[in-house]
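Suppose a colleague, Dr. K., hands you the sequence of a protein chain of 217 amino acids and asks what its three-dimensional shape might be. Before reaching for any lab equipment, you can write down a predicted structure in token form. Begin with the sequence itself:
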Amino acid sequence: MRLLGHLHRLSTLGRGLVLGLPADVAARDPIALFGEWFEAAQKAALLEPTAMTLATCTADGRPSARMVLLKGYDAAGFVFYTNYGSRKARELEANPRAALVFHWPRLMRQIRVEGEAKRTSQEESRAYFRSRPRASRIGAWASRQSEPLESRETLETEVNRFRGQFADGDVPLPPFWGGYRVVPQTIEFWQGRANRLHDRVRFEKTDEVWQAQRLYP
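The predicted structure, expressed as tokens, is then:
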């Protein structure tokens, strides 16, 4: 399996270097194109193809960024989950503009997404929360994400407390936990090419219609 993954990476890399983005890429649906690239990243035996950088800003424009995991996507946007008391969530509540970056270096590919972040419905958050391992659900209750922590022992004490509290039943969705969907207004695809003459195509949505433009590398 490891050998097959290595061979797939080599073949994909070669196509990227030699062929790049197709000439008619501007006519494509960017969500469908994202799906093709994301599927290729999953098949390439990468360590964590769902990892993406999430950049947010405070109300007065101070930026911050961190890695999160993509948990779903469709034409409506790109979904991740978090504690609503975390720094990222507080910043999104004050300033809902967000940016995402997917970087798959072995494939020489990068995708940038910019748009508005909106909370997922409670039903959607609950459905995803139920899919998580039980220990992770208990951990979500125990963690006051981004708040100061006195010691590791304090966190473990909280985990044990909630483990006991939910010992005889299901672990429900915490009222302070759920998802965000980044609704894209801009999606840019970057494909590495030889001599740093990379391919870049940016899609922008205007009046619900995607318009595409190639960019200099």
